[in-house]
Structure formats: structure tokens, C-alpha cells
Amino acid sequence: MDAEADPPTRSRTERHKCFACYKQFKKKEHLVEHMKISYHTPHQPKCGVCQKHCKSYESLRNHLTGPLSRASCSRTFSAQGSVDEKHTTKDAKAIAFNCVMVGGGTDGSLDLCARVCLVDEDEDIIFHTYVQPQSTVTDYRYEITGLTEEHLRNSKSHKEVQDKILEILYNGESARRLMSDSGKARLLVGHDLKHGLDCLRINYPGHLLRDTAKYRPLLKTNLVSHSLKYLTKTYLGYNIQTGEHDPYVDCVSVMRLYKRMRAQDHQVNGIGTPNSDSGFESQKAEELENMTPDELYQLSKSNYKCWCLDSKKAAGPVDF
Questions:
Q1: What is the Cα–Cα distance from 298 to 171, expressed in whole angstroms?
Q2: Which of 39, 223, 251, 297 could join 96 in a cystine, given CB atoms 3.0 to 4.6 angstroms apart?
Q3: What angle do CA 78, 81, 85 make, to 5 degrees?
Q4: Closest to 20 in 3D by CA, of 46, 53, 49
Q5: CA–CA separation, 186 vs 159, rounded Å?
Q6: 145, 148, 237, 306 from 152: Cα distances, Å
Q7: One GO molecular function term (predicted)?
Q8: What pTM value is reported for the model?
């Protein structure tokens, strides 16, 4: 009797895998659309084991240690742990800023700046003072601020504090040159900077702000901000704001977070650097679909400015 013929083999549908995050798609055009909106570049947080790109460090932690973590990466990460970074020795240019708010208005919910602290990259205090609120204080929020009426009795006026802060930040630079990245003006580092600056009625150029509440790699997976307390515990390993809020301690925390992010070593080599023109718009759909995943990755650009670009010489990478 003739041998039974082998059953016909079922051909598998070809899958198209993203070069950066490893998502797979049935159709090449779907991969192309994914690349257009994912902004994959070397600036994204990346697994040190499998090299997968993640949207944020929280996403990376879930990949390494979460309930649905990748087993091989989780084992390697557990065995090796994180890699300590080396901070750059670039000339100090950033200033950390924090202010303490008391309450105004009939219900005490109006934030009024009552204390300000500025710290340099060496964690030395540059400016620290009490501020005379511009409205009547109805709630000193003593349990959090530690402030009383006595602290503000002989405090500096709002205008004096404004002028001093701007003098420090301008660093001798003229106002008309503030829009230049090559000027002497200082970078301002903080957490939820806009709120603090608005309370002091200070307007400072956005390209000189480094906000740990807005920096994309430090956001939650849904792109909502973490608290400074959470970021400090998670990325620096110690607790803050357990009682009264000390503006100096908060300044040190945001400066350390900034320097840690700035110290990342991203090999850009012309690949999708922030503010560069994306190559997707200049290519026809047919041309994009004929490209390899790696070639599509080369066209991608970042949708935020990575803080590593603040440093001429970045140091070793960090795994989270």
C-alpha cells in the first residue's frame, strides 16, 4: 500500500516587526503607520538586555520587573541589577528651583509663594529667602510648610525676589539673547515649574526649562506626571516630604534627577535627533513599505528634547 502522503503545510502569515519596540503587524503599511506615531529613537528608555525601546522608565520597569515582565530580561536584570551612572563634568549651567506655597482666598486654596530656594549643580544654595505674599494669607498650611506669620514678617517683597531670581538665571545675558541655546543664561530645573513661576509672575523661555513633572521618560505609562516624592524614592532611593517640605531638599532631588537623566549615553549618529525633520513625509507610501524595519527606524525622530543633549560629553547608560 502506498505510503500516506504528508499533510499539506500551512504557510504562516508573514509578520512585520518594529525594529525598536518589537511589536508585530500583519501588514507592512501598519508597521509604517506605527513608526510615524511612535517617535522611536535612541533617546527612548531601552532595556539593557533585549534592547527593546519603551515610552518611559515606568514602562521599562514593567518590562523588567512587572507582572507581565519578559522572563529572560527579568532574570538578567535581577542578577545584574542597575548600572551606576557617571555624571558629566560639563561646566555647571543648571539651577534647581523650588518654592513653598501658603494659602490665600476665603478657603485658603489660592497658592501664594512664601519661600524660595535656588540650588546649583553642586547642591550649594545660591538664593534662599522668604517672600511677602501679594494677597492676605488665610492658611499658612503649617503642617506642610512649617511657616507662621512670624517667618514672613520681614520677608522680601515680591518684586525683590523676582529681580534676584532673574538676575541669577540671566547670568549676565541680555534679554534679547535668551532664545539662543548658546547664550550664558542658566537652565532652570524643577518639578511643575510653570506653577511656581506663575505664582512669582516670572516668564522664562520654555527651551531653558527642565521640568521633572513634564519630562516624557519620567511620566507614567499614561503620560501623567508622577509626584516628586515618588520620583525621588523610585530613581534616587530615598524619601522626601515625610513631614514639613524643605525647599532645599526638593531642589536637591530635582537636580539629582536632572543630572541622572542628562548623564544617559545615547548614540544618535544622525538618527532621529529631536527637532530634526522626519523622513516619513518626504517618502512615498510605496517607498516606505519597501524599506526594512531598520531603515524605517533611521527615519524616525524624537517628539521631545532629550536632556542628554544638554551635555557635550555624556557618560554611561543606566538601566531601570
A1: 39
A2: 251
A3: 160
A4: 53
A5: 20
A6: 12, 7, 34, 39
A7: zinc ion binding
A8: 0.82
The residue among 217, 308, 268, 302 whose CA lies nearest residue 35 is 302
Pure H helices in the chain = 28-38, 57-65, 71-80, 142-145, 158-170, 193-200, 228-231, 247-262, 285-289, 293-299
Residue 1 has pLDDT above 70, yes or no: no
Q: Which of these, 203, 199, 201, 225, lies nearest to 212 by C-alpha position?
A: 225
Q: How many alpha carbons fall within 13 Å on the CB side of residue 114?
A: 29
Model confidence band, residue 315 (pLDDT cutoffs 50, 70, 90): very low
**Residue 98: all three cell numbers together:** 523650588
Instruction: Write out pLDDT tens, residues 238-273.
Output: 999 998 999 999 999 999 999 999 998 776 554 445
Counting Cα atoms < 13 Å in the Cβ hemisphere of 266 gives: 27
Sign of CA dihedral 38, 276, 256, 185: negative
